[in-house]
């Protein structure tokens, strides 16, 4: 495939061209000229031969006449789009058939030339097409790399709860609606926000985020809205805020529940009017940005307490997404663990070790008060100190589990009040909770639960089937 030299010049001797022309003399002369210019050329006289070549070989460029006897160059274009979508296509048409060339452009052709074709002009167009192809492939590569580094390529959603979350992400990504993501610390709220951005029409725009509880109100106002020179001590020049800097993209407001009542009023006005006013300025500036907010606090509880404005709450909660804690989606624990082992090992330049059955059971049985973030940190710590080919249960140092979650989401009291929780789910949670409190001792847990050991064994196995390991292998 074609590459780019250090000076930016295309390595045309590596570029492979499929040249489709039903006129034998033109096909021969253009093929010879292109080969003299360093291209590798495969010639075809019509659609059938072109399609056969597309099925057997790969091409950087396809050049086709629009009139090919009984067939059409549009058919060749569509075959190329179907079989080799990364190839750039140039069409050649007669002077009186420019309308057909326009149709070809709408179908995805890079450019068109009218007969008689100047060979030098054809070469120039081919080299420009190669440049665009190289840039497009580079952008695609960078997007994949950014997604991998951000963790978006390996998003785990084995559990029904997380599959529902991803379904909601797909639905809301197609819109510009404001989203509120709620969940405990470490559940992946920013990751979900990035996923929405990546799958939206704003994906090519910036994704900028700020922790609303990490700075004082006056500094937060300057960061979000910007300021003009001289508006306060140290404001030596005009500065755009994040609302403007994120124009055409997405602004992520993390921990929005930490905003002061005074600043909530300013934010509400911006969301209602779609404009901002820089600190020290009298002018309003229109902003084109999508807002995704997040909180690890129970916002509706804050509304009832008078600590969060009800009108702002409903303004940001156009589409709510709740991220369940890891203890409530245990099916995801081991797939997440294996993904983190691969990713972290890759960063460390080592072969990913396997997780022993005992290690899997220890990870699966933990309550994970720090959620996905705690799981990742636990695995990274184990990989640092164990350079072998296998991680054992003793490699994991786990924090003690609190009696009840403290973040306000998914507590036992709430579960008991939630009429939407099935009896089977309540039973599952209770069995796993008792098993955890018994340190994984099934005999003791069965005695406390008042069921037989075999019955407990079958229930645990059913709970764990979706998690990727056999509990009998301990």
Automatic annotation (TrEMBL):
A GO molecular-function annotation: ATP binding
GO biological process, one term: regulation of DNA-templated transcription
PROSITE patterns per the UniProt record, alphabetical: RESPONSE_REGULATORY, SIGMA54_INTERACT_1, SIGMA54_INTERACT_3, SIGMA54_INTERACT_4
Residues annotated as domain Sigma-54 factor interaction: 155-384
Domain Response regulatory: 16-130
CDD domains: AAA
Superkingdom as given in the UniProt entry: Bacteria
4-aspartylphosphate sites (modified residues): 65
Keywords from the named record: ATP-binding, Nucleotide-binding, Phosphoprotein, Transcription, Transcription regulation
PANTHER family: SIGMA FACTOR (PTHR32071:SF122), TRANSCRIPTIONAL REGULATORY PROTEIN (PTHR32071)
Protein name as it appears in the record: Sigma-54-dependent Fis family transcriptional regulator
Organism: Desulfoglaeba alkanexedens ALDC
């Amino acid at each position: 495939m074609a590459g780019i030299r250090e000076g930016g010049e295309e390595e045309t001797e590596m570029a492979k061209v499929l040249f489709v022309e039903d006129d034998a003399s033109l096909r021969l002369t253009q093929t010879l000229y292109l080969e003299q210019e360093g291209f590798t050329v495969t010639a075809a006289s019509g659609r059938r031969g072109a399609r056969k070549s597309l099925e057997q070989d790969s091409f950087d460029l396809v050049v086709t006449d629009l009139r090919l006897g009984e067939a059409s160059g549009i058919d060749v274009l569509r075959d190329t789009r179907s079989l080799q979508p990364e190839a750039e296509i140039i069409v050649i048409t007669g002077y009186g058939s420019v309308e057909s060339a326009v149709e070809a452009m709408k179908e995805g052709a890079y450019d068109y030339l009218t007969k008689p074709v100047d060979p030098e002009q054809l070469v120039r167009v081919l080299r420009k097409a190669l440049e665009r192809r190289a840039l497009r492939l580079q952008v695609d590569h960078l997007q994949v790399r950014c997604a991998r580094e951000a963790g978006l390529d390996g998003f785990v959603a084995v559990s029904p709860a997380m599959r529902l979350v991803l379904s909601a992400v797909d639905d809301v990504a197609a819109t510009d609606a404001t989203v509120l993501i709620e969940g405990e610390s470490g559940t992946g709220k920013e990751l979900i926000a990035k996923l929405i951005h990546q799958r939206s029409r704003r994906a090519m725009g910036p994704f900028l985020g700020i922790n609303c509880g990490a700075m004082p109100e006056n500094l937060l106002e300057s960061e979000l809205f910007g300021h003009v020179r001289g508006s306060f001590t140290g404001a030596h020049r005009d500065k755009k805020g994040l609302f403007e800097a994120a124009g055409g993209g997405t602004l992520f407001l993390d921990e929005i529940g930490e905003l002061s009542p005074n600043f909530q009023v300013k934010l509400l006005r911006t969301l209602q009017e779609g404009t901002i006013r820089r600190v020290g300025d009298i002018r309003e500036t229109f902003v084109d940005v999508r807002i995704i907010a997040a909180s690890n606090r129970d916002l509706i509880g804050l509304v009832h307490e008078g600590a969060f404005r009800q009108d702002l709450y409903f303004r940001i909660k156009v589409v709510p997404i709740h991220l369940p804690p890891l203890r409530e989606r245990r099916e995801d624990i081991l797939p997440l663990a294996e993904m983190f082992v691969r990713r972290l090992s890759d960063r460390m330049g080592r072969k990913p070790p396997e997780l022993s059955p005992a290690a899997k059971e220890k990870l699966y049985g933990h309550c994970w008060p720090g959620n996905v973030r705690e799981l990742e940190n636990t695995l990274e710590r184990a990989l640092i100190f164990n350079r072998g080919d296998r991680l054992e249960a003793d490699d994991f140092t786990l924090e003690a589990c609190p009696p009840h979650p403290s973040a306000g989401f998914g507590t036992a009291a709430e579960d008991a009040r939630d009429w939407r929780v099935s009896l089977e789910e309540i039973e599952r949670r209770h069995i796993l909770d008792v098993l955890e409190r018994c340190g994984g001792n099934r005999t003791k847990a069965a005695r406390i639960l008042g069921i037989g050991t075999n019955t407990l064994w079958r229930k645990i196995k059913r709970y764990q089937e979706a998690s990727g390991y056999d509990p009998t292998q301990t």
